[in-house]
Structures are given as structure tokens and as C-alpha cells.
Design brief:
38% of the residues lie in helices and 26% in strands. The chain is an alpha+beta fold and 219 residues long. It has a single domain, classed as Nuclear Transport Factor 2, Chain: A (Roll). The protein has a four-stranded antiparallel beta sheet with strand order 1-2-3-4, with helices on one face.
Length: 219
């Protein structure tokens, strides 16, 4: 009787184990559509310095053979040192970086600026924010739209790629004094802005993040 009980007990636990394995296989093998993607660049392949994933900017990579012949010929000099480069995805990432940098400048988000700017540009932004803080002014930036973005210049120096992008955007910059009052009524309407920003990346560096190295405005 005792042996029969032990035998039934073994069968019971074996059936429970099989049930659990099947359930795990069903759950782990099912794609929900919420899995993280593997697109990379304009970030250092998941992180940018100390920032978390929510702050990185993605300029994805594609297999070399997936790009059109026209795009390959247009950027053949870049592909020689970076076969993963894709201009369309670069511009999408640059556009996201543009928004993040403007918003971070308004919010005095030094961590994000530190990750996206080179040392000289970061120092300029830092000093401008500190001057604003000393005057106790508050800046609110609303990016209404980015109407166009275009690479207008490419420079390659050894392993370093510099790409200059022209952004055409509509932005509302609301500046308030220490009492919260508008400094100018002009702040209520969007300004049409033409910004020319240069991004740079050293293809031999372990840091795969594109950095903003120069800014210019035509307004």
C-alpha cells in the first residue's frame, strides 16, 4: 500500500512538472509586440554616458545590402569607414536629438546635455543656463513642428565623420521673469527657426554616440 502511494505521488509531481514546463514554453515563446528593439546609434548601443534608455537617441543601423544603390553612391565615402551608416535613419535620430537638446536647455537638464554635446558646446550651453538662473528667469520651449531636416555638408577626417544638418522648425520660446511674468508678448507665438547643427562621431571610438559640435542659426 505504501509503495503504491509513493508511486502515485511520483506520477503526480511528474505531471505537475510537465504542466509547468508547457506553460513556461507557451509564455516565453510568445511575442507580445512589446519586446525591445535592437536599433542603434546616436546612442552608444543602449546607453549614452550615464543616461538611461529613455534618454538615448536612436539612429538605427541596417545591413549594407538593404540600402538602395542611390544612397550607397551618395554616401560612398562614409560607407568606406562606416558600412552601417544610413542617412535616413541618421536624420531621424538627429531630429530627436535636436528636440531633446532644446528641451534640455530650457529645463537645465545638464545630464542629457552632457551626453549629447561635445565639451565646447556643452560649456556654452552651461554658461547660458547659469546666466539665466542668475537672472532667475524661466524658459519654456515648445517645439510645434520640425518642418524639414537635411544633411547639407559632410566632412571626413581620418575616422571622424562630421555631418551638418539644417533644421527648419517652428518653436515657441516663452521667457518669464523671476515673478513669472512674460518678458515679451512675442513669446506667445511660434518663431520660424532655421538651425544649422553639426554632429560628429569617431568611428574608431568605443563611444558610438554622435555629439553636437557646432550650432548656427540663420534667424
Amino acid at each position: 500500500m505504501g509503495n503504491n502511494f509513493q508511486f502515485l505521488e511520483i506520477i503526480f509531481f511528474a505531471m505537475v512538472a510537465i504542466f509547468i514546463i508547457l506553460r513556461l514554453r507557451n509564455v516565453l515563446g510568445r511575442r507580445t509586440g512589446n519586446e525591445p528593439s535592437n536599433t542603434n546609434n546616436f546612442k552608444d548601443h543602449k546607453t549614452s554616458k550615464s543616461r538611461d534608455v529613455s534618454n538615448v537617441v536612436s539612429i538605427g543601423e541596417k545591413n549594407y545590402d538593404e540600402r538602395s544603390t542611390e544612397q550607397k553612391n551618395k554616401n560612398s565615402d562614409i560607407y568606406e569607414i562606416d558600412p552601417t551608416f544610413n542617412e535616413t535613419e541618421f536624420l531621424e535620430g538627429a531630429s530627436t536629438a535636436y528636440e531633446m537638446i532644446l528641451t534640455s536647455y530650457a529645463n537645465a537638464d545638464f545630464d542629457t546635455l552632457r551626453a549629447l554635446l561635445d565639451d565646447d558646446v556643452y560649456n556654452d550651453f552651461y554658461n547660458a543656463i547659469e546666466d539665466r538662473n542668475e537672472r532667475k528667469e524661466q524658459l519654456e520651449t515648445t517645439i510645434v513642428s520640425i518642418n524639414s531636416k537635411e544633411v547639407i555638408e559632410k566632412n571626413i577626417n581620418d575616422s571622424v565623420i562630421d555631418l551638418t544638418v539644417q533644421f527648419s522648425s517652428e518653436i515657441i520660446n516663452t521667457l518669464r521673469d523671476k515673478d513669472g511674468d512674460l518678458i515679451s508678448e512675442k513669446n506667445r507665438v511660434p518663431d520660424k527657426i532655421i538651425d544649422i547643427w553639426t554632429f560628429s562621431r569617431d568611428t574608431r571610438s568605443n563611444d558610438l554616440n554622435w555629439k553636437l559640435i557646432a550650432t548656427q542659426s540663420e534667424n
